């Protein structure tokens, strides 16, 4: 008995010591982390003083004064608050938000030359400065091997594998399918016109883009436009519902601090379940395709000689490869990426285009003669190319085999293209966030100890309010997140001129206003291969900021061809440019060809006619629309739903025009 007691005492004493040891280890680890954080904060406070910024608290930096403006309760995309701060700071080329000790500092970029410098290759960063780790928040949505997330050689190999699926030669084979799906979209619009009820354009537009991207990616027609909600792929656990749910559950970066996002177990569980369902469904679709891909190979004995002989992007990407687990995993990630990236972005573009059309009708409170002229130009071009007898003739013409639809869409619609470009300029659905590890030691990147300091050139600028001049200077940026804020870059009056906030497609037309779009593209890409300097420095070749050459015969004084390189970048530029831009243009051109001539658009609610109190107001803010609308000057603004989307789903009422 005494022996057992003694043994127990020893065990208890040993456990007691272990407990103390554990407490000591936890204490040391917390102390170590606190010291690292302290040093990190100290460095941040020392390093970036040369970059314009709002006043900083000695301990909390900009956490409070910027955090208040980014609060999720404001229900606006962070780009809006960032533009507000930029204005307040006098519109500098870039400014800093200091989030230490909670997070690293962030640079908000408004100047195209800086944006260009960080997205072009350099000796240090072969495929441009790496993406920010904040993007990891979309990992479940797009898969961990997604093109959007991966870096280095892995990225290069994957991009090469999938580029062919988005090449114009391949996309052109898809035009008949896009046209046939746009017919279904047209039928839905006609339905809304007939019943005269308000609707959110986001619904038919995102169903259309879903139908197109699922076909292109995995050759699967889910008939998103006709399947009723709650059935088939739109049932509770259906594939289309899974994508939407995954997207809505994704944490929104840059949206201030929201504790519910971190501790919501129900949300985490839901995310896990839908991720499993979604990934499995995509995986099965790919597995089911393997026999036909093999068949294609064995019948031809070699790879298909033209990309057009195989339609789905996965077919193209898997042809000639052994379907090893790693190949299949990365393919699943890319398909998830395409389904996500191919839907909301293009649907959002369609919605903003409709808003601009609505301003051309006297019923709109935002009516202007300028908008009416723009619509007339647009319709005249459609009359000339597709014939004037039927407003929907574009769909018939484009489906005729002898029509050379690719040429029509490629170069015969310069005004339409300019209209689309302008809609994307004012309302870019995304931006690009990059990150350079802190030198010489970064707590999040311990393997990067030997890295050199990294500098970029901040061009000279004049404070928009005080008129104070600031000389150009080199600023140190390692350790920072660098955010190319397309929303600000595209609306920067120092680049785009005093009417930067106005919708005007002539910025993208040539002298005659009729030239082929290729010429405009050429002008835009003149400095395409602009490579930054080495030695840990990123410095663009073009440093002029809105330096205007006297080109009075251009249709717009701030014509795209006169602007600094990289002023226009809705799809981002450099190696990590969007893979789907050609597809987005094809879709937008076909849709615009029926929206402009076929319907009279009336915006309802925000930016349009004010609803009566008893009317149901729906959209991102629900019945709050009216209240929030008042505070925001009754304009449609964008909110953060992974990409930037119109707050009210673009609520419209339409009539058939002819
Ligand atoms: C109006 C439509 C679209 C806009 C404005 C747009 C915009 C962008 C932007 C700004 C990026 C860079 C993101 C970053 O740097 O983190 C990007 C990348 C990407 N986009 Fe798009 N996108 C559009 C449509 C599409 C479509 C239709 C697809 C595919 C089906 C697509 C697939 C991708 C992919 C895979 C990437 C990553 C490319 C890489 O890093 O190699 N996008 N897009």
UniProtKB/TrEMBL annotation:
InterPro entries in the record: Cyt_P450 (IPR001128), Cyt_P450_E_grp-I (IPR002401), Cyt_P450_sf (IPR036396), Cytochrome_P450_monoxygenase (IPR050121)
Parts of the chain that traverse the membrane: 18-40
Positions of region (Disordered): 525-567
Source organism, top-level taxon: Eukaryota
Stored SUPFAM superfamilies: Cytochrome P450
Keyword terms, alphabetized: Membrane, Transmembrane, Transmembrane helix
Compositionally biased tracts (Polar residues): 532-552
Protein name per Swiss-Prot or TrEMBL: Cytochrome P450
Biological source species: Lithohypha guttulata
């Amino acid at each position: 008995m005494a022996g057992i007691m003694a043994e127990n005492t020893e065990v208890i004493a040993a456990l007691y010591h272990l407990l103390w040891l554990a407490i000591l280890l936890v204490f040391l680890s917390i102390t170590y982390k606190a010291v690292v954080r302290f040093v990190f904060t100290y460095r941040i406070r020392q390093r970036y003083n040369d970059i314009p910024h709002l006043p900083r608290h000695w301990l909390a930096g900009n956490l409070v004064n910027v955090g208040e403006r980014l609060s999720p309760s404001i229900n606006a995309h962070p780009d809006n608050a960032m533009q507000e701060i930029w204005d307040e700071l006098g519109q500098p080329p870039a400014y800093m938000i200091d989030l230490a000790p909670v997070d690293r500092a962030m640079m908000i970029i408004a100047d195209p030359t800086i944006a260009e410098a960080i997205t072009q290759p350099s000796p240090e960063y072969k495929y441009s400065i790496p993406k920010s780790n904040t993007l990891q928040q979309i990992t479940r949505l797009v898969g961990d091997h997604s093109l959007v997330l991966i870096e280095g050689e892995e990225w290069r190999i994957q991009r090469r594998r999938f580029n062919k699926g988005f090449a114009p030669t391949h996309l052109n084979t898809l035009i008949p399918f896009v046209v046939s799906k746009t017919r279904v979209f047209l039928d839905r619009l006609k339905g809304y016109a007939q019943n005269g009820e308000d609707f959110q354009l986001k619904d038919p537009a995102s169903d259309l883009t879903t139908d197109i991207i699922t076909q292109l990616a995995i050759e699967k027609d889910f008939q998103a436009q006709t399947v009723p909600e709650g059935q088939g792929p739109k049932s509770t656990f259906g594939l289309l519902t899974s994508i939407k749910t995954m997207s809505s559950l994704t944490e929104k970066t840059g949206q201030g601090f929201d504790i519910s996002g971190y501790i919501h177990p129900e949300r985490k569980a839901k995310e896990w379940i839908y991720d499993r369902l979604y990934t499995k469904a995509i995986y099965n679709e790919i597995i089911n395709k393997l026999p036909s891909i093999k068949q294609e190979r064995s019948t031809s004995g070699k790879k298909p000689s033209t990309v057009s002989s195989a339609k789905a992007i996965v077919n193209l990407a898997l042809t000639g490869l052994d379907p090893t687990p790693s190949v299949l995993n990365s393919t699943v990630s890319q398909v998830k990426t395409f389904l996500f990236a191919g839907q909301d972005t293009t649907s959002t573009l369609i919605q903003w285009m409709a808003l601009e059309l609505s301003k051309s009708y006297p019923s709109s409170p935002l009516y202007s003669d300028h908008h009416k002229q723009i619509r007339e130009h647009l319709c005249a071009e459609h009359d000339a190319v597709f014939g004037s007898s039927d407003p929907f003739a574009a769909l018939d013409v484009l489906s005729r085999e002898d029509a050379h639809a690719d040429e029509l869409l490629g170069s015969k619609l310069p005004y339409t293209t300019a209209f689309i470009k302008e809609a994307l300029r004012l309302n870019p659905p995304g931006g690009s966030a990059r990150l350079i590890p802190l030198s010489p030691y970064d707590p999040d990147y311990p393997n990067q100890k030997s890295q050199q300091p990294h500098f970029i050139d901040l061009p000279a600028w004049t404070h928009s309010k005080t008129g104070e001049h600031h000389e150009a200077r080199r600023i140190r940026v390692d350790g920072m997140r660098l955010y190319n804020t397309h929303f600000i870059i595209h609306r920067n009056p120092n680049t785009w001129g005093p009417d930067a906030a106005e919708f005007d497609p002539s910025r993208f037309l040539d002298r005659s206003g009729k030239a082929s779009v290729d010429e405009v593209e050429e002008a835009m890409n003149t400095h395409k291969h602009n490579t930054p300097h080495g030695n840990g420095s990123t410095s663009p070749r073009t440093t002029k900021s809105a330096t205007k050459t006297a080109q009075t015969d251009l249709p717009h004084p701030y014509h795209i061809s006169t602007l600094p390189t990289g002023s226009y970048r809705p799809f981002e530029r450099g190696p990590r440019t969007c893979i789907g831009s050609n597809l987005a243009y094809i879709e937008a051109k076909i849709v615009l060809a029926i929206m402009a001539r076929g319907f009279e658009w009336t915006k309802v609610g925000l930016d349009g006619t004010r609803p009566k109190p008893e009317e149901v107001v729906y959209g991102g803010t629900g019945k709050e629309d009216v209240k929030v609308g008042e505070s925001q000057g009754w304009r449609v603004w964008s909110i953060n739903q992974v990409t930037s989307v119109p707050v009210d789903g673009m609520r419209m009422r339409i009539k058939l025009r002819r």
